[in-house]
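ingest -> validate -> predict -> emit
validate: passed (alphabet ok, no gaps, 179 aa)
predict: started
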Amino acid sequence: MPVRHILKMGDPRLLRVAAPVTAFDTDALHLLVTDLLDTMAAANGAGLAAPQIGVDLQVVIFGSGAPNPRYPRAPIVPQTVLCNPVITPLDAEEQMDWEGCLSVPGLRGVVPRWQRIRYTGFDPYGDAIDRTVEGFHARVVQHECDHLIGKLYPMRVRDFTQFGFTEVLFPGLDAAQDD
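emit:
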């Protein structure tokens, strides 16, 4: 399947609220998922949301079975396709950590995220997903789900002294990890 163009910050389509998936196990949904997976793999992403490729549906993918070159020290997250996600924080504890985004290339920022969450939703076949996760896994899910409500991670940055170009913040970081 084709690798799709990833929209960049400034494109008004990234600010829209996505519609829920209403029809599961369709050719159109499976093609969308394949395009998302191929696009994420080509960009070495840890996740990707349908709005990032211009599709206004509540579909996110995330995870990797091997260390990701953009996040080499991150733990492995199971590859997941999640439709119509709902995130519930399990406590008030937040964790501050660096994030990047394929729609905000070349930049990184420190973003607060809930440390422990429960997320629910459906796979492309309409089967329920219900997981409790923490740390990097929780961060990736929250980041991707933000795309479904028209938020990009810079909108969550609290301290702009911890936001900037990857090459300046992290000199010598491999170019493959720049966004």
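Residues 27-42 form the longest helix (16 residues).
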